[in-house]
Amino acid sequence: MGRPIVRLKDIADQTGFSVNTVSLALRDSPRIPQETRATIRQAAEALNYLPNHIAKSLVSRETRTIGLVLTSITNPILTLVAQEIELRLAERGYSTLFATSNGDHHEEKKVIEMFRSRQVDGMLIYPRAHRDLDHIRRLRQAGQPLVLLVGDMDAGVDVVAMDTRRGSHKAMRHLLEQGHRQIGLIDGGGERGNFEKLDGYRQALDEAGIAVDEGLLVVPQTHSVAGGYAAMAELAARGGGMTAVLAATDLLALGALRWTQENGRRVPDDMAIVGFDNIEFAQYAATPISSVDYAVGQVTELAVERLLGLIQAEALPEPEMTLIEPDLVVRASSGAPISGP
């Protein structure tokens, strides 16, 4: 048998007050004397009373919950983002439901439908494929408040995200200014149609008058340290005089760094390395790794504010896109920064 449900009437019978008085007291209404509120709260705790949020949501049409869809639970930057979002929503009286798609399209649709069935007030989503968004657009068109945490100008839904294309371009400009001309790229985003980092890489080379060498592009087998290690080994085996590498995540960059250490390549003298996300591990690596910073605080604050604004709107406004320009944090793995005017 399940746990018996304690009703407001049970507390009223226990204390001798009316159901209305009990209800007001449990909502901490100033209309009820402090002593009476304390008596009623004590009785509620003794009876193990729990508020019926489902019933409340049916009346208010709000559940005060937000669904957050991640692509991976093991990605350190997504873990930080999830933590920040949960804290920011809690400050505003909302609870957060978490789910991960594990980079699978069908799983992404499944968890979004699960959130819909839970009647969340809104969603924050990292889509696995930044341009395969028809299922998410349909939700928006149906009136579901949601904000993507990655996306582009054609998303058709609200987006608050780091400008990773710009970040990649900045990293490449830095390496080019350091004198590197044959620069490898470790990036698996293209497999899902996520070309932002590759676009920034190509743009910087084009501006420098350097043709893209397809032999310097490698897709890692996994988005992990081990994947970066194997990808670096593959790039080295191709030859070609590569002197620098840009990795799409710091985990991949850590793997590349490990390969250089085991194979007698000095960093940055023989091989410069730049990563993405600026996670703590990059800063404290054996050779601290230069990295494109992910502004967790700024992204989460703006995304939460936009989503809550959509929830409170009588009708959803036109979608807005907010791209945050990232900073490049230069460390020992790519040499000293170029001094400017």
From TrEMBL:
Residues 6-60 form the HTH lacI-type domain. SMART domains: HTH_LACI (SM00354). SUPFAM superfamilies: lambda repressor-like DNA-binding domains, Periplasmic binding protein-like I. PROSITE patterns: HTH_LACI_2 (PS50932). It comes from the Bacteria. GO terms for molecular function: DNA-binding transcription factor activity; transcription cis-regulatory region binding. The keyword Transcription regulation applies. Keywords: DNA-binding, Transcription, Transcription regulation. CDD domains: HTH_LacI, PBP1_LacI_sugar_binding-like. This is LacI family transcriptional regulator.
